[in-house]
Each structure stands twice: as C-alpha cells, then as structure tokens.
Specification:
CATH class of the largest domain in chain A: Alpha Beta
Helix content of chain A: 40-55%
Distance between the termini of chain A: 32 Å
Oligomer: homodimer
Radius of gyration of chain A: 18 Å
Strand order of the largest sheet of chain A: 4-3-1-2-9-10
Strand content of chain A: 15-25%
Shape of chain A: globular
Order of helices and strands of chain A: EHEHEHEHEHHEHHEHEHEHE
CATH topology of the largest domain in chain A: Rossmann fold
C-alpha cells in the first residue's frame, strides 16, 4: 500500500481521457496531472525533441513525489518510454502495450487499422508491438494529424471533421479492417462519429480505457494501491494557462477541472 | 550601409512567406531565419508564454549578429512587440503596422474583415491599430485556428479546407466586408482558394508583402541597407528538425531551403 499520488502526463489536455478512465477504475487514487500545453503538440515533432520534453515532464512529476507515472500520450510513449524506463527507477507505464493487448484480446482480430499522430505512426511502435504478439496480422497504419486540432476546437460534428475522417478512414475500410485502434488520447471524443462512419462490425479500441486497466493490474502486482477507503483527488498542472485550455480540460474530464496551476519545467 | 544579416523569426516555417517577399524586394540582403518549430504553434498560447518565447527568439538572433529583426509572426507581434522594442536597442519590426497601413491605403476601405489565430484576435492589436488610424470603420475579426494545421498538411484544395473556410468566411461576407486582412503569415498560401470563395470586390491584404515593403522603407531611412552589388543568402535555423518541416519550408519558400541547422534556445 502506498498513499502517494499517481503522476500522469501528456503534451496537453488530451491525456485527461486517461485520468477519467483511471478515476472510474481506481476512485481512491490521488492523481497529479501535467499537461505540457506551452509546447504542444508532440505528434508532429522529432523523436529527439519529444525525448527531451518527456524527460522534463517525468522529472517534474518525480519532484512532486509521485509513486508511479503514466505516459498518457501515444507519441511520447512511442518515442521516449524505453529511455525513461532505463533512466528512472519509478514504475513508468505507457499507453501502447495495453492498447495492443486489448486489440488482440479478440482472437479473431486479423486486419487492424491504427489512427494516430504522424510521430506515433512513424515510430512503428504499434506495428512492432502487434507483430511481436501475433503473426500473420494485416496492419494498416494511418497518420491522422488533423484530428487533434479539430477535437480541440470541439468541431466533432462539423462537416469538416467528417471530410477529414473520410480521407483517413476510406483506405482502411477498403482494406476490410476488423479492428480500429484509436492511438491518441484525444480520439475517444470521436467515438460517436466514428461509430456512425465505420461498418458496424469494426471494433474500436481506445487508449484511455485499456491504459487504466493495465495500470490497475500493475499497481496491484507492485502493491502500490492506496487504501480504498479514501476518495482520491486531482491536481492539475499545465505549462501554459489559457481560457481555451481550461475549457478543453472541462470537456475532456466531463466535469470542472478545479484550480489549475502553472508548472515551470527545466528549472 | 550595413552588411550584417537581417534576422527574421516565426513560430515555425510560415514566416518564410515574409522571407520570400523580402528576397524579392531586397535581393542583396543576407537573411538569418529562426523558426521555433519545437514549440509551435504560438497562436493558441497565452500572451505571457508568447512573450517568453519571443524574447528567447530575439536573443538568439542578436547573438548571431543581425542588424535588424522582423517578427514574422502575427501572434508574436501582437503580444510581444512593444516589450521587445523597449528591451532591445536593435530595430525590431512587426507584421501588424504594415498590414494595417496597406489595408487603409485604399480610401474606400470601410468594412474590414480580419482572419488570424485566436491569440492575434484576442490581443485586439489589429482592431486597435485600425481604429487609431481611421474613425468610422466597421471591423470584423474572425479567429481561424484550423487554417494553420490545414495549410501545414498542404490540404489547400481539400473539401475539409473549404468547409472550414466557409464557416469562417460566411459571417464576414454577410457583413459585406470590402477588405480581408490575412493576419497570419501562413495564409498567403490560401489566396487562390480565398479568391474563389469570396465576392470579386473583396480586396485581400496579406502580411508578407506589406511587411517586406515596410522593412525596405525602414532600412532605407536608417541607412542599414547592404551594398546592392552582392547577392544575398539565407541561413535557416529551426528549434526542431524533421522531414515534415523541411518539406514545409520548401513549400513556403517555393524553392529548396538549403541546409537547415538546429537552434538551441535559452542556452
């Protein structure tokens, strides 16, 4: 048992979909969230730059006394997780492994589409993790760089979002995918429109839910869970504060984010 | 006469539209360009953060020995120019003043639309500058945050871009604007599609061309022009290097950017 908070970080507020999933599954855990809104997005930047940013994010969370860290950003997981695990002793979990296990939980999964940022697709992290676990899979990666900006505008139902999704999804549907991995923590907000646009038999696997389940198993195994009699709280840190980020945080959390504090990294 | 290079900076590669315009007008000037690609975009972030970033950008250019600086980013001009001018002795020009003068060069301009990032619109920098110079104007600002991501994908002709533009432009057309200010250095790439979507009598005023003309007048007045017998060169620095940024740089410059160097700021 360990009553220190969990640390969760993302390039921005998209990782709050992971926070919500963790709060549902582990309601007694305290969570300290860091969103690097001053330098977002991560998805279009180079592996070297992302590793530098992720390292500063982890250092900040460790300085706040967290007991474990979740990299709630697919791009940061793809580029930086192996290095972070080597460098720090604290347990650090990413979003990719859990997502891949969930995608393959259905024995019939054969043709798997992946939508993600360009950085995540380029890293081949999902493609490798899938291929390692099951041979003979058909894997269809699709970089989808415009989805994050559209979601951040809350244009979920706008004709432009459908036009963009059509361009990204048509080639996957033509390939006959049976599973679509939403490999970016922003994408769970698109689930209703994806359901509408995709054939009924395509299964959606999202990072947020699968990551929370993975975290619960890990914390249980490491005996790091907090006493379940207390209700957990959330502390939110962002590297840049603005009205838009507060509004977005509310949208991703589906409730008020409380008081947001400004984090200064690399100090 | 002064043969030191000009410094030009932007959050990313959009400011290369200004470089192109300056090269056309002042072909003998050497230009040192800095794009803060590691931390882009600036348009959605807070004034405080933008002032901090712009200060680091200016320090970098000064350390390279430039004779004058152009802030080739509307958001940075809007939030940081007054402070930068106070803090540094070197001549520093923004993109707003020149654009406003160009918009008002036509005596008949009365109803002026402005499209820009959310940060630029929020700053009221254009609205104030216009209102100071001519009374009785009808000013219609429109934040257009999705245009930069679409332009960076080179989806100029995509149905999604038209759907996004329709949402941004319809309210301006309904107000009967006679002038549209393209108040972001990315937007000149949209001119062909804007011409198609707007009534014929709407005049377009873009930041890049007007800024280059303003720069020429200022350098002439300050006797800072270089000997016109030499051909100028371009040195390109980015804070994050990637294949996408190189491809984008080519698109904005309309020719090869040459060797791009990585800049480390705040060192």
């Amino acid at each position: 048992m360990n009553s220190a908070p969990l640390g969760i970080f993302d390039s921005g507020v998209g990782g709050l979909t992971v926070v919500r999933a963790v709060q549902e599954l582990l309601p007694s855990e305290d969570i300290l969230y860091l969103g690097d809104t001053a330098r977002l997005p991560y998805g279009s930047k180079s592996p070297e730059t992302i590793r530098h940013f992720a390292d500063e994010d982890v250092r900040f969370l460790i300085s706040k006394g967290v007991k474990a860290i979740v990299v709630a950003c697919n791009t940061a997981t793809a580029h930086a997780l192996p290095q972070l695990r080597e460098q720090y002793r604290i347990p650090i979990l990413g979003v990719i492994e859990a997502g891949v296990e969930a995608a393959l939980a259905d024995e019939r999964s054969e043709r798997i589409g992946i939508i993600a940022t360009r950085g995540t697709i380029r890293s081949h992290a999902y493609q490798h993790a899938l291929a390692l676990r099951r041979t003979g899979l058909m894997i269809h990666p699709q970089a989808a760089p415009l989805l994050v900006p559209l979601i951040e505008e809350n244009w979920i139902d706008h004709p432009a979002t459908r036009a963009v999704l059509k361009t990204y999804l048509d080639p996957l549907v033509e390939k006959g995918i049976d599973t679509l991995m939403l490999a970016c923590t922003h994408y769970p907000l698109l689930i209703p429109v994806l359901r509408e646009m995709l054939p009924d038999d395509v299964r959606l696997v999202d990072s947020a839910t699968t990551c929370a389940e993975h975290l619960k198993r890990e914390l249980t195994a490491l005996e790091l869970l907090k006493d379940a009699n207390f209700e957990g709280g959330l502390q939110l840190y962002l590297t840049d504060l603005s009205e838009e980020f507060e509004a977005l945080a509310r949208q991703f959390l589906k409730r008020s984010p409380g008081r947001i504090q400004r984090a200064i990294l690399g100090a």
